[in-house]
Specification:
The protein is mainly beta. About 10% of the residues lie in helices and about 30% in strands. Strand 1 (about 40-45) and strand 2 form a beta hairpin.
């Protein structure tokens, strides 16, 4: 059972949340995806994440990791040896592409391949200008005194 949500009332009454609403809309349109290759997403620290993807049989040259704005693409293109005749093929060697939506300011800081496991390390790095800052409150700051305003009126003799 699938329920499509209508976000149009939120678009009409919110300002600056369009990326979040578009992401929610895109997530609701996602069709059933292939479950291969399997992967884990782990939050290792406050602003650090790791994607671990099982890519048995793929070499480093056959894998591609690309980040375009807030989308991370991981793809694998297997090069096949034409002279091989398999009697049984249990290790998947098909091409794949995984897409991960990243939040603002999340960047890939590293990737590695060991023992058939591709790991991608990510970190949220908030720019200094967007971090909360402490504002000092001055106590001896004197405000300029305002001079009383007078309304000039013409005197009329009665």
């Amino acid at each position: 059972m699938r329920t499509n949500l209508d976000f149009s009332p939120l678009f009409r009454s919110s300002i600056g949340f369009d990326r979040i609403l578009n992401a929610l809309e895109a997530a609701s349109r996602v069709e059933t995806m292939d479950n291969w290759p399997p992967y884990d997403i782990v939050k290792s620290r406050k602003d650090e994440y790791r994607i671990a993807m099982a890519v048995a049989g793929f070499t480093q040259d056959e894998l591609t990791i690309t980040q375009e704005q807030n989308i991370l693409f991981v793809s694998g293109q297997k090069t096949h040896a034409e002279d091989m005749q398999y009697l049984h093929r249990g290790i998947a060697g098909r091409s794949f592409q995984r897409r991960f939506e990243l939040a603002d300011h999340v960047k890939v800081v590293g990737a590695g391949l060991a023992d058939g496991l591709l790991t991608i390390d990510l970190k949220r790095e908030i720019p200094e200008a967007m971090k909360p800052r402490h504002i000092a409150i001055a106590t001896d700051m004197a405000l300029p005194e305002a001079e009383p305003k007078q309304i000039a009126a013409d005197k009329q003799a009665a």
